[in-house]
Design a protein that fits this description.
Chain B: Belongs to the ERD2 family. The structure holds 2 protein chains of 2 kinds. Chain A contains no helices and no strands. Chain A is mostly loops. The chains are: A little secondary structure, B mainly alpha.
Chain lengths: ~10, ~210
């Protein structure tokens, strides 16, 4: 899955 | 979390610490682009606004806070405390040429047309080019102190390691984010010329000096 509102990286 | 991301994050952290310690110990920010540091402060501020809306992990929150605080501390040292040593005559890159296109692009190409998402996208685009004023300053003066070179190497390695992290995540978790990947490739490519000079000169004990 591309794109999600949750960006879990810095 | 995988080894590439962890070493990428640690390399990023190391870069920020090297710069802060260098300025503090030498009581001077000569050779450092204040403009690049202002851009990084803007990058972290716009990207980490999700600190107030989304919780990911203690690690994530901790690192974000460190990056924001350290970038503001660096800007404070350059523009306030050690202002007299700031090389503003050579730090003449026009940052509006980076900020405005990054912002327009983030309005055009994003995952979701929402305020936080656009600011996140803007920060990704801006980060990819935020080092240009610093590289411009080095090219203008024709040289960089070894410690500045170590800073640039650690900062450049961080996004390079993230590229490996994204390859890993694509295969291991079927996760990918094209915006981050394309910007990350651009960011890493901008450092390539510097990486070459770093390996061929700085690691052999020579000063980073550009050919006249």
């Amino acid at each position: 899955k591309s794109s999600s509102n949750k960006h879990d990286e810095l | 979390m995988n080894i590439f991301r962890l070493t990428g994050d640690l390399s990023h952290l190391l870069a920020i610490i090297i710069l802060l310690v260098k300025i503090w110990k030498t009581r001077s920010c000569a050779g450092i682009s204040g403009k690049s540091q202002l851009l990084f402060a803007l990058v972290y501020t716009t990207r980490y606004l999700d600190l107030v809306s989304t919780y990911i992990s203690a690690y994530n929150t901790f690192m974000k806070l460190i990056f924001i605080c350290a970038s503001y501390a660096t800007v404070y040292l350059i523009y306030m405390k050690f202002k007299a040593t700031y090389d503003h005559n050579h730090d003449t890159f026009r940052v509006e040429f980076l900020i405005l296109p990054s912002f327009v692009l983030s309005l055009l190409i994003n995952h979701d047309f929402a305020v936080l998402e656009i600011l996140w996208t803007f920060s990704i685009y801006l980060e990819s080019v935020a080092i240009l004023p610093q590289l411009f300053l080095v090219s203008k003066t024709g040289e960089a102190e070894s410690i500045t070179s170590h800073y640039l190497f650690a900062l450049g390695s961080y996004r390079g390691l993230y590229l490996l992290n994204w390859i890993y995540r694509y295969y291991a978790e079927s996760h990918y984010d094209l915006i981050a990947i394309v910007a990350g490739v651009v960011q890493t490519v901008l450092y390539c010329d510097f990486f070459y000079l770093y390996v061929t000169k700085v690691l052999k004990g020579k000063k980073l000096q550009l050919p006249a």
